[in-house]
Protein backbone atom coordinates (compact mmCIF):
# COMPACT_ATOMS: atom_id res chain seq x y z
CA UNK A 1 0.00 0.00 0.00
CA UNK A 2 2.16 2.84 -1.32
CA UNK A 3 1.38 6.54 -1.00
CA UNK A 4 2.82 9.53 -2.81
CA UNK A 5 2.22 13.19 -1.95
CA UNK A 6 2.45 15.69 -4.81
CA UNK A 7 3.13 19.20 -3.55
CA UNK A 8 4.66 22.39 -4.93
CA UNK A 9 6.67 25.44 -3.97
CA UNK A 10 3.76 27.77 -4.90
CA UNK A 11 0.17 27.54 -6.04
CA UNK A 12 -0.58 27.10 -9.76
CA UNK A 13 2.58 25.07 -10.36
CA UNK A 14 1.05 22.14 -12.26
CA UNK A 15 0.01 19.77 -9.45
CA UNK A 16 -3.14 18.63 -11.25
CA UNK A 17 -1.20 18.02 -14.47
CA UNK A 18 1.42 15.93 -12.65
CA UNK A 19 -1.16 14.01 -10.60
CA UNK A 20 -3.24 13.18 -13.67
CA UNK A 21 -0.15 12.33 -15.73
CA UNK A 22 1.20 10.04 -12.99
CA UNK A 23 -2.20 8.48 -12.36
CA UNK A 24 -2.95 7.75 -16.01
CA UNK A 25 0.52 6.27 -16.61
CA UNK A 26 0.36 4.07 -13.50
CA UNK A 27 -3.13 2.89 -14.50
CA UNK A 28 -1.81 2.09 -17.98
CA UNK A 29 0.96 0.04 -16.31
CA UNK A 30 -1.73 -2.02 -14.56
CA UNK A 31 -1.75 -0.51 -11.08
CA UNK A 32 -4.89 0.19 -9.04
CA UNK A 33 -4.55 3.93 -8.33
CA UNK A 34 -6.25 5.82 -5.50
CA UNK A 35 -6.51 9.58 -5.12
CA UNK A 36 -7.17 12.14 -2.42
CA UNK A 37 -6.74 15.86 -1.89
CA UNK A 38 -6.70 16.22 1.91
CA UNK A 39 -7.27 19.97 1.97
CA UNK A 40 -9.70 21.42 -0.56
CA UNK A 41 -9.54 25.13 -1.32
CA UNK A 42 -12.36 25.28 -3.90
CA UNK A 43 -15.59 24.22 -2.14
CA UNK A 44 -18.24 22.50 -4.26
CA UNK A 45 -21.33 20.50 -3.34
CA UNK A 46 -21.67 17.05 -4.92
CA UNK A 47 -24.91 15.17 -4.23
CA UNK A 48 -25.36 17.07 -0.98
CA UNK A 49 -21.77 16.50 0.16
CA UNK A 50 -19.00 19.09 0.44
CA UNK A 51 -15.98 18.43 -1.75
CA UNK A 52 -13.26 20.23 -3.70
CA UNK A 53 -13.74 21.28 -7.34
CA UNK A 54 -10.23 20.24 -8.45
CA UNK A 55 -10.54 16.90 -6.67
CA UNK A 56 -13.87 16.15 -8.36
CA UNK A 57 -12.32 16.99 -11.74
CA UNK A 58 -9.18 14.86 -11.22
CA UNK A 59 -11.27 11.90 -10.00
CA UNK A 60 -13.36 12.17 -13.15
CA UNK A 61 -10.26 12.13 -15.40
CA UNK A 62 -8.83 9.11 -13.55
CA UNK A 63 -12.18 7.29 -13.56
CA UNK A 64 -12.39 7.17 -9.75
CA UNK A 65 -15.72 7.65 -7.98
CA UNK A 66 -14.97 7.93 -4.26
CA UNK A 67 -17.01 9.90 -1.71
CA UNK A 68 -15.99 13.62 -2.04
CA UNK A 69 -15.95 13.98 1.78
CA UNK A 70 -13.42 11.15 2.03
CA UNK A 71 -11.32 12.47 -0.84
CA UNK A 72 -11.20 15.98 0.68
CA UNK A 73 -11.83 15.57 4.42
CA UNK A 74 -10.88 19.21 5.04
CA UNK A 75 -12.52 21.85 2.85
CA UNK A 76 -11.64 25.49 3.48
CA UNK A 77 -14.77 27.67 3.56
CA UNK A 78 -15.15 31.11 5.14
CA UNK A 79 -16.80 29.49 8.16
CA UNK A 80 -13.88 27.04 8.43
CA UNK A 81 -11.35 29.91 8.43
CA UNK A 82 -13.19 31.79 11.17
CA UNK A 83 -13.20 28.68 13.40
CA UNK A 84 -9.58 27.79 12.57
CA UNK A 85 -8.21 31.26 13.28
CA UNK A 86 -10.18 31.29 16.55
CA UNK A 87 -8.46 28.05 17.57
CA UNK A 88 -11.65 25.97 17.38
CA UNK A 89 -10.43 23.37 14.89
CA UNK A 90 -8.99 20.22 16.42
CA UNK A 91 -8.21 16.80 15.03
CA UNK A 92 -7.94 17.75 11.36
CA UNK A 93 -4.81 15.66 10.81
CA UNK A 94 -6.52 12.65 12.43
CA UNK A 95 -9.44 13.11 10.02
CA UNK A 96 -7.02 13.17 7.07
CA UNK A 97 -5.25 10.01 8.29
CA UNK A 98 -8.54 8.12 8.70
CA UNK A 99 -9.70 9.12 5.21
CA UNK A 100 -6.34 8.13 3.72
CA UNK A 101 -6.47 4.69 5.36
CA UNK A 102 -9.97 4.08 4.01
CA UNK A 103 -9.14 5.22 0.47
CA UNK A 104 -5.75 3.49 0.27
CA UNK A 105 -6.87 0.17 1.73
CA UNK A 106 -7.38 -1.73 -1.54
CA UNK A 107 -5.07 0.35 -3.78
CA UNK A 108 -1.59 -0.38 -5.10
CA UNK A 109 -0.70 3.30 -4.81
CA UNK A 110 -2.57 6.40 -3.62
CA UNK A 111 -1.73 9.83 -5.00
CA UNK A 112 -2.20 12.59 -2.43
CA UNK A 113 -2.51 16.06 -3.97
CA UNK A 114 -1.38 19.17 -2.15
CA UNK A 115 -3.10 22.55 -2.11
CA UNK A 116 -1.18 25.82 -2.53
CA UNK A 117 2.45 25.65 -1.37
CA UNK A 118 4.17 23.25 1.04
CA UNK A 119 3.38 25.65 3.92
CA UNK A 120 -0.26 26.37 3.04
CA UNK A 121 -2.54 25.32 5.90
CA UNK A 122 0.04 25.88 8.65
CA UNK A 123 -2.54 27.96 10.56
CA UNK A 124 -4.60 24.81 11.18
CA UNK A 125 -1.78 22.21 11.14
CA UNK A 126 -2.72 20.80 7.73
CA UNK A 127 0.37 22.02 5.85
CA UNK A 128 2.10 19.58 3.50
CA UNK A 129 5.01 18.83 5.85
CA UNK A 130 2.64 17.84 8.67
CA UNK A 131 0.43 15.74 6.36
CA UNK A 132 3.38 13.90 4.75
CA UNK A 133 4.92 13.07 8.13
CA UNK A 134 1.61 12.02 9.65
CA UNK A 135 0.77 9.73 6.72
CA UNK A 136 4.34 8.39 6.57
CA UNK A 137 4.48 8.59 2.77
CA UNK A 138 6.97 9.77 0.15
CA UNK A 139 6.64 13.16 -1.53
CA UNK A 140 7.36 14.80 -4.86
CA UNK A 141 7.65 18.60 -5.01
CA UNK A 142 7.00 20.57 -8.19
CA UNK A 143 8.81 23.83 -8.81
CA UNK A 144 7.43 25.82 -11.71
CA UNK A 145 9.76 28.28 -13.41
CA UNK A 146 8.55 31.84 -12.79
CA UNK A 147 11.47 34.12 -13.70
CA UNK A 148 13.68 31.70 -11.76
CA UNK A 149 13.61 28.40 -9.86
CA UNK A 150 13.24 28.22 -6.07
CA UNK A 151 16.32 26.07 -5.44
CA UNK A 152 16.78 27.33 -1.84
CA UNK A 153 13.21 26.29 -1.05
CA UNK A 154 13.84 22.80 -2.47
CA UNK A 155 16.99 22.39 -0.38
CA UNK A 156 15.06 23.39 2.76
CA UNK A 157 12.39 20.82 1.87
CA UNK A 158 15.08 18.12 1.69
CA UNK A 159 16.26 19.11 5.17
CA UNK A 160 12.70 19.01 6.53
CA UNK A 161 11.52 15.81 4.82
CA UNK A 162 14.75 13.83 4.61
CA UNK A 163 14.28 10.44 2.93
CA UNK A 164 10.55 11.09 2.55
CA UNK A 165 11.37 13.51 -0.29
CA UNK A 166 11.42 11.16 -3.26
CA UNK A 167 12.46 13.97 -5.59
CA UNK A 168 11.47 17.13 -7.42
CA UNK A 169 10.00 17.99 -10.81
CA UNK A 170 11.03 21.23 -12.50
CA UNK A 171 8.09 22.44 -14.56
CA UNK A 172 7.48 24.91 -17.38
CA UNK A 173 11.18 25.45 -18.12
CA UNK A 174 11.72 27.82 -21.10
CA UNK A 175 14.26 26.82 -23.79
CA UNK A 176 16.72 29.58 -22.85
CA UNK A 177 16.96 28.25 -19.27
CA UNK A 178 17.50 24.56 -20.08
CA UNK A 179 21.31 24.77 -20.17
CA UNK A 180 21.41 26.41 -16.74
CA UNK A 181 19.20 23.65 -15.33
CA UNK A 182 21.27 20.87 -16.92
CA UNK A 183 24.73 22.26 -16.21
CA UNK A 184 24.38 24.31 -13.02
CA UNK A 185 21.19 24.10 -10.96
CA UNK A 186 20.50 20.40 -11.55
CA UNK A 187 23.93 19.23 -10.34
CA UNK A 188 23.77 21.69 -7.40
CA UNK A 189 20.44 20.27 -6.23
CA UNK A 190 21.59 16.68 -6.71
CA UNK A 191 24.73 17.42 -4.65
CA UNK A 192 22.41 18.38 -1.75
CA UNK A 193 20.55 15.09 -2.07
CA UNK A 194 17.61 16.53 -4.03
CA UNK A 195 16.81 14.00 -6.78
CA UNK A 196 15.53 15.56 -10.01
CA UNK A 197 12.79 13.27 -11.32
CA UNK A 198 12.07 15.29 -14.43
CA UNK A 199 12.42 18.58 -16.25
CA UNK A 200 9.24 19.51 -18.14
CA UNK A 201 9.76 22.07 -20.91
CA UNK A 202 7.52 25.08 -21.41
CA UNK A 203 4.57 24.22 -23.64
CA UNK A 204 2.44 27.17 -24.87
CA UNK A 205 -0.68 25.00 -25.12
CA UNK A 206 -0.69 24.30 -21.36
CA UNK A 207 -1.24 27.98 -20.56
CA UNK A 208 -3.68 28.59 -23.40
CA UNK A 209 -7.29 29.69 -22.98
CA UNK A 210 -10.32 29.80 -25.28
CA UNK A 211 -11.52 33.21 -26.42
CA UNK A 212 -14.94 32.70 -24.81
CA UNK A 213 -13.38 31.82 -21.44
CA UNK A 214 -10.99 34.76 -21.74
CA UNK A 215 -13.89 37.18 -22.26
CA UNK A 216 -15.57 35.83 -19.11
CA UNK A 217 -12.40 36.06 -17.04
CA UNK A 218 -11.72 39.63 -18.20
CA UNK A 219 -15.30 40.65 -17.44
CA UNK A 220 -15.73 41.71 -21.07
CA UNK A 221 -18.12 40.79 -23.87
CA UNK A 222 -17.60 39.41 -27.36
CA UNK A 223 -19.09 41.86 -29.89
CA UNK A 224 -18.27 40.10 -33.18
CA UNK A 225 -17.49 36.69 -34.73
CA UNK A 226 -19.24 34.96 -31.82
CA UNK A 227 -19.03 31.61 -33.63
CA UNK A 228 -15.23 31.62 -33.21
CA UNK A 229 -15.16 31.85 -29.40
CA UNK A 230 -13.44 28.43 -29.32
CA UNK A 231 -10.25 29.86 -30.84
CA UNK A 232 -7.22 29.49 -28.57
CA UNK A 233 -5.07 32.26 -27.06
CA UNK A 234 -1.57 31.26 -25.94
CA UNK A 235 -0.12 34.68 -25.13
CA UNK A 236 -0.81 38.39 -25.68
CA UNK A 237 0.71 41.49 -27.22
CA UNK A 238 -0.01 45.10 -26.29
CA UNK A 239 -0.73 47.32 -29.29
CA UNK A 240 0.29 50.70 -27.88
CA UNK A 241 3.30 51.23 -30.13
CA UNK A 242 3.57 52.65 -33.65
CA UNK A 243 2.17 50.37 -36.34
CA UNK A 244 5.59 49.62 -37.90
CA UNK A 245 7.05 48.51 -34.54
CA UNK A 246 3.91 46.60 -33.69
CA UNK A 247 4.12 44.61 -36.95
CA UNK A 248 7.69 43.53 -36.15
CA UNK A 249 6.64 42.11 -32.76
CA UNK A 250 3.36 40.71 -34.05
CA UNK A 251 5.06 38.51 -36.65
CA UNK A 252 7.10 36.81 -33.90
CA UNK A 253 4.15 36.01 -31.64
CA UNK A 254 1.68 33.47 -32.97
CA UNK A 255 -1.69 32.87 -31.29
CA UNK A 256 -1.42 36.17 -29.42
CA UNK A 257 -4.47 38.12 -28.34
CA UNK A 258 -3.91 41.79 -29.15
CA UNK A 259 -4.75 44.21 -26.35
CA UNK A 260 -5.33 47.62 -27.86
CA UNK A 261 -7.24 50.83 -27.15
CA UNK A 262 -10.68 50.99 -28.74
CA UNK A 263 -9.58 54.14 -30.60
CA UNK A 264 -6.49 52.57 -32.27
CA UNK A 265 -8.11 51.39 -35.53
CA UNK A 266 -4.72 51.34 -37.31
CA UNK A 267 -3.31 48.66 -34.99
CA UNK A 268 -6.66 46.84 -34.88
CA UNK A 269 -6.70 46.46 -38.67
CA UNK A 270 -3.11 45.15 -38.84
CA UNK A 271 -3.89 42.61 -36.09
CA UNK A 272 -7.05 41.42 -37.86
CA UNK A 273 -5.29 41.00 -41.21
CA UNK A 274 -2.47 39.12 -39.44
CA UNK A 275 -4.88 36.43 -38.17
CA UNK A 276 -4.65 36.94 -34.41
CA UNK A 277 -7.04 34.74 -32.35
CA UNK A 278 -8.88 37.79 -30.99
CA UNK A 279 -8.72 41.52 -30.31
CA UNK A 280 -9.22 42.86 -26.79
CA UNK A 281 -10.37 46.47 -27.02
CA UNK A 282 -9.89 48.52 -23.86
CA UNK A 283 -11.54 51.66 -22.50
CA UNK A 284 -15.09 50.48 -23.28
CA UNK A 285 -14.81 51.98 -26.79
CA UNK A 286 -16.64 50.40 -29.71
CA UNK A 287 -14.56 49.90 -32.90
CA UNK A 288 -15.61 51.62 -36.12
CA UNK A 289 -17.71 49.88 -38.77
CA UNK A 290 -14.72 48.97 -40.96
CA UNK A 291 -13.09 47.06 -38.08
CA UNK A 292 -16.34 45.32 -37.14
CA UNK A 293 -16.94 44.27 -40.75
CA UNK A 294 -13.37 42.93 -41.20
CA UNK A 295 -13.69 41.08 -37.90
CA UNK A 296 -16.80 39.27 -39.16
CA UNK A 297 -15.32 38.55 -42.59
CA UNK A 298 -12.04 37.24 -41.15
CA UNK A 299 -13.87 35.47 -38.29
CA UNK A 300 -11.72 37.06 -35.58
CA UNK A 301 -13.65 37.76 -32.36
CA UNK A 302 -13.45 41.15 -30.68
CA UNK A 303 -13.71 41.35 -26.89
CA UNK A 304 -14.64 44.74 -25.44
CA UNK A 305 -13.60 45.54 -21.84
CA UNK A 306 -14.00 48.58 -19.56
CA UNK A 307 -10.52 48.87 -18.06
CA UNK A 308 -7.47 50.61 -19.47
CA UNK A 309 -4.81 48.73 -21.47
CA UNK A 310 -2.31 48.43 -18.59
CA UNK A 311 -4.91 46.96 -16.19
CA UNK A 312 -6.15 44.49 -18.80
CA UNK A 313 -2.59 43.37 -19.64
CA UNK A 314 -1.88 42.72 -15.95
CA UNK A 315 -5.12 40.73 -15.68
CA UNK A 316 -4.28 38.78 -18.81
CA UNK A 317 -0.84 37.86 -17.51
CA UNK A 318 -2.42 36.55 -14.31
CA UNK A 319 -5.10 34.59 -16.21
CA UNK A 320 -2.64 32.88 -18.56
CA UNK A 321 -0.30 31.88 -15.72
CA UNK A 322 -3.11 30.56 -13.52
CA UNK A 323 -5.60 29.13 -15.98
CA UNK A 324 -6.99 25.78 -14.84
CA UNK A 325 -6.28 22.55 -16.71
CA UNK A 326 -9.76 21.64 -17.93
CA UNK A 327 -9.85 21.03 -21.71
CA UNK A 328 -9.50 17.47 -23.02
CA UNK A 329 -6.72 18.52 -25.41
CA UNK A 330 -4.73 20.01 -22.51
CA UNK A 331 -5.19 16.92 -20.34
CA UNK A 332 -3.90 14.72 -23.17
CA UNK A 333 -0.96 17.06 -23.79
CA UNK A 334 -0.16 17.30 -20.07
CA UNK A 335 -0.25 13.51 -19.66
CA UNK A 336 2.15 13.14 -22.61
CA UNK A 337 4.52 15.76 -21.17
CA UNK A 338 4.58 13.90 -17.84
CA UNK A 339 5.03 10.50 -19.51
CA UNK A 340 7.88 11.78 -21.71
CA UNK A 341 9.87 13.76 -19.14
CA UNK A 342 9.56 12.02 -15.77
CA UNK A 343 11.63 9.11 -14.44
CA UNK A 344 8.80 6.64 -13.80
CA UNK A 345 11.14 3.72 -13.20
CA UNK A 346 12.77 5.51 -10.27
CA UNK A 347 9.38 6.52 -8.83
CA UNK A 348 8.02 2.95 -9.08
CA UNK A 349 11.19 1.53 -7.54
CA UNK A 350 11.08 3.96 -4.59
CA UNK A 351 7.41 3.16 -4.00
CA UNK A 352 7.98 -0.58 -4.22
CA UNK A 353 5.73 -0.97 -7.27
CA UNK A 354 6.66 -3.89 -9.54
Automatic annotation (TrEMBL):
Pfam families: AAA_26, DRTGG. InterPro entries: DRTGG, P-loop_NTPase, Phos_Acetyltrans/Butyryltrans, Ser_kin/Pase_Hpr-like_N_sf. Residues 213-317 form the DRTGG domain. It comes from the Bacteria. Homohexamer. This is DRTGG domain protein.
Amino acid sequence: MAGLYIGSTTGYSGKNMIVMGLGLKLQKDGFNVGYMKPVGAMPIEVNGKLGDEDAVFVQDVLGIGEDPELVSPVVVTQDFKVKAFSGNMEGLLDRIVESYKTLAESKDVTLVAGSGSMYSGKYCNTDAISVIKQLGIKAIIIDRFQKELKYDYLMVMKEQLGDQLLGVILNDIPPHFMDEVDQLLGPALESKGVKILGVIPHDPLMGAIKVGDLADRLGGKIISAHNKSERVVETFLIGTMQVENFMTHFRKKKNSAIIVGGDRSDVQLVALEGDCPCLVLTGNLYPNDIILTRSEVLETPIIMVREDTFTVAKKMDDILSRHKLRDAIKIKQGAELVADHIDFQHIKKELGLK
